[in-house]
Design a protein that fits this description.
Chain lengths: ~180, ~350, ~260
């Protein structure tokens, strides 16, 4: 199994940390992982993206042109990465702020309105975990228990009280994600 | 049980240095390697192991602090990125001349000048062909994995002390910034017991020791140079490191190091899926360069593509090694652009197979 | 009194310190470096700290200081002695570390390293020889060359408008909180020599007590570079250098001396 993912959105949406949690989850189930961010000034308010790879084998290139899955959280990223999904691949996006919805017919397109759900849940910080939950519903590449173990490992201990809220967010994402026909 | 962590390359080399029992780190912030010192400061190795950390006022000061500390026989390290490494060249030359062991880390970014903060490999010439003045060589390790960033800290110290010479770990922004799984080893003892016979630790029970690269007598300076060259010859004999992937049946060969090697490995997989038999040769030591190994492979392949994030620097060494026996072409992106595996495959098809 | 009488031990009034090597000094006759070297080594000898002392030589006339000072020494790149000393001292906080630097080394090319080592309060001793000229390279203008003073690169005298002002780096670094003791002396008369030696003693005491950086400027002559006879150069120094670079303590026990 090898899953090549691009996660892209605005800086501050938790793009990089979502990727990190996914990578940690992979380590928890003894997989090879790589996480490569577009680094630099982008992190402050501009666009942010990270390439995450989970595999049963040693990973070669951490940099890719095409992906099995694209998780897209703003319009700029949609414009940039919709075409980068491999035929037969998966595109997950949050509809918030998206004007031009994805139109490809050769991939599976899923919508998870995570921002709206996060507002409803009264905690916009867990937005990215809702997205992650949605993605894992479509591609259960890592087990929820390993996600939680990964979260625990990547969060400083003083934030461990936030673990239940994160778990709830993941469950919510799994519940609300829909396949766009 | 082995300890696994998800770490950035920059963090891994910092942890690797602590675990290797480093005595001191002196550095100055510069993107994309600032996490090295940030990690060290956060980890408080001065409490964990007694390791000294100091943020210097410049790269010039860092390398000279390194000189002073190395001259007392300590295990010392600095890290920087291209523009900062340029500033250190004076000190590196002095350390090579004075035969001081140290580990230098260059997380290369695009140039020339202030360039960009994105990954690049355009410092190959600077590192392997001199950089500073005078006839010296820099033993250079090129990590391609975050695990190697961790491992090469200890290896770097080992080689630096084995030959009493500066060792460069030449990574790039991609290896520095990406995260991978790292297996953390045990804590090695700090360098409290070492051969002090040459170091300046205070004149006690012996004649005074002098650390210098200066000898105004040209005859003696020539002798010193002959001694240095003999040492470099020993390094060439004993320390060449490389990795070969699927070269046995290869008709074409990628030669690439660091992050470019990994991108090329994926390109190799894509090529083989199309029925093109490609192998990958990854120099791990950039100096000494695996000349003999490339010479041998060049007898069996139809063509070689060197893949570098530069205008083509290592290709000169590949051409020398293969003695113009086969076509050697370069493919690279510059200025911080990182090639995709597909681009590398296209270059192979256009420059060697179709051409 | 014949020679046998004179060399009897009880008649001994002065003896070369064992911490000066037998290598003939490479300095010009009349130069102050030799005296400054000797004073420094006498202090290390008399304090009994030779086994724990590491010196750093600069680039300039005293680039070969380690040929004469019989202690462990490192030769630094031009201007970088305070950084080199920082590296040594941070790894060996209980050793005594000194730098010995000229004006071009300390106050021109090495200004950044000087100021930052001082500002961090590195627990080292800096001996700064100021003779207002680059002696080693043949008498070029230094950062401390006086206005109007002739050098090979200010052949008509230092024009401040074109060449800038002489730098009183000693007064400058005295302002920094990391610096504990700053004083300016000379070595051209027996009285000046005695005072300088006392100052060097004090500087090593400060280092022993880990109170911060101590900085001793020695205003000296360069008869060759100044194109003068040695005695004339000392008179010129008194008449011209001392009014600008005033001798005496500038900072004691971390407090600026008010005059």
């Amino acid at each position: 199994m090898t899953e090549e993912i691009i996660i892209a959105g605005f800086g501050g949406q938790g793009v990089l940390s979502m990727g990190k949690i996914l990578a940690y989850s992979g380590i928890m189930q003894d997989q090879e992982v790589s996480w490569f961010p577009a680094y630099g000034p982008e992190m402050r308010g501009g666009t942010a993206n990270v390439t995450v790879i989970l595999s049963d084998q040693k990973i070669s290139s951490p940099v890719l042109r095409v992906y099995d899955t694209a998780i897209i959280l703003n319009q700029q990223s949609m414009d940039k990465f919709e075409e980068s999904v491999k035929p037969g691949g998966l595109l997950v996006y949050d509809g918030n702020g998206i004007k031009n919805h994805p139109a490809r017919k050769d991939i599976t397109i899923c919508r998870v309105d995570a921002y709206a759900e996060a507002v409803k849940m009264g905690n916009t910080k867990i937005f990215n975990m809702i997205v992650l939950g949605g993605y894992l519903k479509m591609k259960p590449i890592v087990k929820l228990e390993n996600v939680m173990a990964g979260l625990k490992k990547s969060l400083p201990e003083r934030y461990h009280n936030l673990l239940p809220a994160n778990k709830e967010a993941i469950m919510k994402g799994q519940e609300v994600i829909t396949v766009v026909e | 049980m082995k300890e696994l962590r998800l770490m950035k390359g920059n963090e891994a080399i910092a942890e690797g240095a602590i675990r290797a029992g480093a005595d001191a780190y002196f550095g100055y912030p510069i993107t994309p390697q600032s996490e090295v010192m940030e990690y060290l400061m956060m980890e408080k190795p001065h409490e964990r192991t007694g390791m000294v950390i100091l943020q210097a006022e410049s790269e010039v000061a860092s390398i000279n602090m390194l000189y002073g500390a190395a001259g007392t026989g300590k295990r010392v390290m600095t890290s920087s990125s291209s523009p900062g490494i340029s500033l250190m060249q004076e000190g590196i030359s002095y350390m090579a001349g004075a035969e001081l062991p140290c580990v230098l880390v260059n997380v290369v970014r695009g140039g020339p000048g202030l360039g960009t903060i994105q990954p690049s490999q355009s410092d190959y010439f600077q590192t392997t062909k001199g950089g500073g003045h005078g006839d010296y060589r820099l033993l250079t390790l090129a990590p391609a994995y975050v695990q190697e960033m961790y491992d090469f800290a200890a290896l770097g110290f080992e080689l630096a002390f084995k030959y009493r010479t500066p060792v460069m770990i030449q990574a790039d922004g991609l290896i520095g910034q990406m995260m991978e799984k790292v297996e953390i080893g045990d804590q090695a003892a700090r360098f409290t017991e070492f051969d002090q016979s040459w170091a300046t630790t205070g004149k006690k029970g012996r004649e005074r020791n002098i650390i210098t690269s200066l000898d105004l007598d040209p005859a003696r300076q020539e002798q010193h140079n002959i001694h240095l060259q003999a040492k470099y010859a020993d390094i060439v004999k004993a320390e060449v490191r490389f990795e070969e992937i699927q070269t046995e049946d290869a008709e074409y060969l990628f030669v690439a190091y660091g992050s470019s090697a990994r991108i090329s490995q994926k390109a190799m997989q894509l090529a083989r899926a199309k029925g093109i038999k490609v192998g990958l040769f990854r120099p791990i030591t950039l100096w000494p360069f695996p000349t003999e190994q490339i010479d041998a492979i060049s007898k069996r392949v139809k063509g070689i593509l060197t893949v570098e994030q530069s205008a083509g620097q290592m290709i000169e060494d590949v051409k020398l090694a293969s003695q113009c026996r086969v076509q050697v072409e370069h493919f690279g992106r510059m200025g911080g652009m990182v090639p995709s595996p597909e681009e590398v495959l296209e270059a192979l098809e256009q420059k060697l197979i179709g051409g | 009194m014949d020679i046998k009488e004179i060399i009897k031990p009880e008649n001994l009034v002065y003896k070369k310190t064992g911490l000066m090597t037998d290598n003939p000094l490479s300095y010009c006759p009349g130069c102050g470096h030799g005296t400054a070297h000797r004073l420094l080594m006498e202090v290390v000898d008399e304090l009994g700290i030779v086994e724990d002392t590491i010196g750093v030589a600069p680039v300039g006339c005293s680039v070969l200081a380690y040929d004469f000072m019989n202690v462990d020494m490192q030769g630094a790149a031009h201007g970088r002695a305070p950084a080199v000393a920082t590296g040594i001292k941070r790894c060996w906080p209980d050793k005594y570390v000194f730098t010995y630097q000229g004006d071009g080394d300390l106050a021109a090319i090495g200004t950044a390293e000087t100021i930052h080592a001082c500002n961090r309060g590195e627990n080292i001793t800096i001996i700064f020889i100021n003779n207002g000229i680059y002696g080693m390279t043949g008498g070029q203008m230094a950062p401390t060359t006086l206005p109007g003073m002739r050098t090979t690169t200010s052949p008509y005298g230092r024009e401040v408008e074109m060449m800038g002002n002489p730098l009183k780096i000693t007064e400058l670094i005295a302002q920094l909180p990391g610096v504990h003791y700053v004083t300016r002396h000379a070595v051209h008369t027996p009285r000046a020599v005695r005072k300088t030696k006392k100052a060097i003693f004090k500087a090593f005491e400060v280092q022993k007590e880990k109170k911060g950086l101590s900085f001793i400027e020695i205003v000296s002559n360069c008869n060759s570079g100044w194109k003068m006879e040695p005695v004339a150069s000392n008179i010129w120094m008194e008449d011209n250098m001392f009014p600008f670079y005033e001798l005496g303590d500038i900072k004691i026990d971390g407090q600026l001396v008010t005059k």
